[in-house]
Write a sequence for this structure.
């Protein structure tokens, strides 16, 4: 267990250093370790302990559970104001992935592309509603995969004077059985994060509950998504993201090789005619897809 924890931190630090070494010359002066230490030293002790605990949980061994990879994203403090609408397009592709199905009839991520438009509407009172339509392009054929709705609540926001931003996102999904063993599912995703000058740290502890028979009587599955990024130019940032899927609560210890662990190097653009984020991901276990590409495009609405 201890080796997994320190190994995970080493992977994250190595990804940051690799990204900076490959970045333009203007970024070569960045020193990840002093900057990270400075961020941590500025945090209140209680908050530091909470975030470190979440990071620790995200690096625990997690049991593999088949899930449609329609949205690869760490939820942060972005939320629509009352009456504001937005449209995002999630596009994920797996050039090299796991090829052995985890249950009969499963359509694997390998060589597939997932395309998911997401429409969101600001309800006011720190609430935002969203609607997704999932699809999978398999062997050059477009296939409907399902749909889901969500409600995001962000009562704590730094721009309001809170020391951190935090909230909760609730989702209900209807996914075809060739993509997830349980057709109906729910998700509760907690959001906690903070800006440190040019740095952003966010952690999403996530609980997934299957709602279809025979899975509805099982305990929830736990997973995490985390992001550490740095602004390198106006409206541009680079960072790392780490995703861990899943651990069914109360089932005892799980071996590391049978888990799904993905790390991404990501670039974020918040300006221009088409804001976007794009990343390249690597799997760190035999049960993880070896190579995953992801992109999210923010499409302007009239």
């Amino acid at each position: 267990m201890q080796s997994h924890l320190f190994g995970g931190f080493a992977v994250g630090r190595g990804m940051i250093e690799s990204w900076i070494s490959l970045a333009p010359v203007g970024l070569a002066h960045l020193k990840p370790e002093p900057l990270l230490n400075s961020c941590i030293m500025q945090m209140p002790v209680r908050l530091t302990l909470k975030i470190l605990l979440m990071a620790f949980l995200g690096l625990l061994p997690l049991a593999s559970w088949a899930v449609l990879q329609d949205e690869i994203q760490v939820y942060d403090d972005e939320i629509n104001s009352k009456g504001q609408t937005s449209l995002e397009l999630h596009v994920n592709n797996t050039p090299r992935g796991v090829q052995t199905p985890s249950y009969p009839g499963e359509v694997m991520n390998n060589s597939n592309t997932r395309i998911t438009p997401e429409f969101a509407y600001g309800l006011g009172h720190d609430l935002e509603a969203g609607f997704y339509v999932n699809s999978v392009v398999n062997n050059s054929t477009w296939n409907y995969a399902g749909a889901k709705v969500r409600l995001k609540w962000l009562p704590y926001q730094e721009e309001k004077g809170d020391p951190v931003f935090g909230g909760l996102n609730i989702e209900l999904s209807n996914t075809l059985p060739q993509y997830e063993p349980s057709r109906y599912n729910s998700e509760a995703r907690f959001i906690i994060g903070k800006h440190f000058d040019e740095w952003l740290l966010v952690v999403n502890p996530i609980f997934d509950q299957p709602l279809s028979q025979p899975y509805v009587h099982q305990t929830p599955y736990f997973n995490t998504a985390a992001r550490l990024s740095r602004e390198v130019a106006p409206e541009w940032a680079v960072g790392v993201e780490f995703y861990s899927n899943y651990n069914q609560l109360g089932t005892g210890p799980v071996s590391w090789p049978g888990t799904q662990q993905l790390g991404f190097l990501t670039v974020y653009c918040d300006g221009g005619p088409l804001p976007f984020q794009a990343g390249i991901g690597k799997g760190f276990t035999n049960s993880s897809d070896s190579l995953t590409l992801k992109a999210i495009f923010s499409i302007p609405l009239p």
Remarks:
- The longest strand covers residues 141-156.
- Residues 2-22 form the longest helix (21 residues).
- The CA atoms of residues 97 and 289 lie 4 Å apart.
